[in-house]
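Think of the structure tokens as a kind of shorthand, similar to the way a musician reads notation: each symbol stands for something richer, in this case the local conformation of the backbone. In the example below we present two proteins back to back. Begin with the first one, reading the sequence and then the tokens, and try to describe in your own words what changes along the chain.
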Amino acid sequence: MQTKVRTEKMYIAGEWITGKKMFDVINPQNGEVVANVPTASVQQMLTAIERAEEAFQNLSSWPTHERIKVLTKAANYIEAHHEMFAETIALEGSKTITEARGEVKRAIQTLRISGEEARRMKGETVNFDQREGSENRTGYYYRFPIGVIGAITPFNDPLNLVAHKVGPALACGNPVVVKPATMTPLSALMLAKAFAEAGVPKGFLSVVTGAGREIGEPLVTHPAVKMVSFTGGLAAGKKIAHQAGLKKIGMELGSNSPVIVLEDACLAEAVSSTVSGAFSAAGQNCIGVQRIFVASSVYDDFVEAFVERTRDLQVGDKMAEWTDVGPMISEQEAIRVEGWVQEAVYEGAVIEAGGIREGAFFEPTVLTHVSHQSKIYKEEVFGPVVMIESVESLKEAVKFSNEVDYGLQAGIFTKNLDHAFYAIQHLDVGGVMVNDSSDYRIDEMPFGGVKGSGLGREGIRHAMNEMSEPKVVCFKLGNLWGV
């Protein structure tokens, strides 16, 4: 059955606007056109930024209680239209309908937490009298919004990753201009509708659709944009950092996440967790499991159980309730992953399961004996492929885990606290999940990495710290104090 094609408008400073040109949003599963969306011009992007700056200057003291109200109402709107949001996420992207429903739930939580954190954006008093001669001084610091935030978001979580930028920005009192992924703009536009219905002040939110190569640079380089918050690939992140100049930058640039399984681990739990972590969202997940290092004494048992569970996954129609793994975001991406796997096999890797592509679908794939020089070992595969390797010690596992130029999150399965703390202290990553795969996150926790995995931290309160600045206030008191 042909999906009814929607015609959408952009949301610029409180107005729904079309463009002279339109582009198609394609369902990667079958190539059907889901919607027609405006291709913004450079001038339209500049208008969004300028209106945001005007709104910030005219409403620089947007009261906290109003921010809380808007964020809460937007969350309530999404909750009231939960299934509509989920269907949109699934249609325009790679997620199954079940995974899409989970993302909607998380986005609601993200906005509600943002509202809660708005009331907790506080400073503290400073004891100026700790310095000799400052006995007659007292003061404090508080945090203030920095201004327009430019947000650039990816396709793999088209609603919640937008919420992770919009929610904290508005909670601080900052306007935000969002450039969503070209392949998945519909969820961001629906989020804009939620905020419009919630009464966000005009200018404080714009969602500008179109090609990053045309409207991305104006968003990154405009002097009114005080921070760029970007989630995407390392190459694009490096380019943005070069373009941005002297302004704040927050970047989550992906990973090549390792998981360590020691001989004392609960293998059934480790297998279940890592299979899910490797193949959810068709492997297109920045904290998805890519490399698994298993103690040699349990390696064979682990591989056998992992492969068996992988083969049980149901690949197919992403709108079906029974589907575990849907298509990748495009056939081109699936072809890329297929090429990486074939290259690894040529270099000595063994395919234990999967390895077959059909259109945009790529079967969940398990590799062993992968060369550490292979591209698929060193880079972020961003597809449904996982590598399993035998190790002789925890120290060796940690060494292998750290030898790539990424460090977002890692996991370790063990019942030994000494081993757990060794991994915590020596894994060069932004987060260590003990007895969980790397693919575990709650939206409140600080989220980000080291090395090529990015700069700064997301997670609502932590993003708010990035999107605000402390201002120190010091009072020198007069002679009434008798000093």
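Once you have a description of the first chain, move to the second and do the same.
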Amino acid sequence: MNKLEAFGYIAAQAARGEISFPTSVNAVLRLQLALDDPDCHVEEAIRLVLSEPQLAARTVALANTAAFGAAGVQVTNVRAAVQRIGYHRLRGLVAALLVRQFGHRIGDPLLRAKAAQLWEHSAQVAGLAQALARHVTKIDPDTALFAGIVHEVGGFYLLSRADEFPGLLEDDTENWSELCEDVVSIEVMRKLAIPADVAAAIGALRDGVLDPEPHTLLDTLLLANRYAPVASPLAAAPIMQDGGPLDGAVLDKLLAEAGETAQALGDAALV
């Protein structure tokens, strides 16, 4: 099977709804469903967080960032962390854990390196999106953080399948990977129950045009991608970090805040 046939095969599977997740992703999906249950009591939420050591560690780390009002008072346990960041904000952390679990399927070292860079990019975009939402676009920061975490989920899925098709994501001069990723992203986001407004903003990213007065989730994601210190390894060309609408002092403040959040979400090591 050549590269074009492989892209067509994967895209056709996605179009038919035949999306296959690693076992570890399915396990996190079950956690997500449990936390999304309106009858899930806060004590049960804390128990569920404690059942996933990485999620527990990330919850405490995120609660101790400036973005969540740490103000120098550090929390050291999951109960206090959940109380500080708020129950619904766990959605972003669960999404981060879920996205990184796609790395479990990847065996090839070069593909694992791409996945690690893609996670680093996603974490930086998520942190920047949250900071931009708070200080610039004035949308809901929690939604912006979540959207940044999952905005490359189609790319993660392609990387998780690329072991089956050697050379799939190399030297794609015809940009078939972008076309395939668009189709795959729609179905993966549907399977993951990504909210419609978030999915729409992510779907519009590739051809999106920044508003002169940024104020939407799409604007927030476009700016976060423009200024992210780490580029996506699947991008057709490196993202330019200059020439944007933010001045140096504002950008430095946002990057510092975003860097702290990205670190709290977890380093690039695949789980």
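Compare your description with these statements about the second chain. The mean pLDDT is 86.
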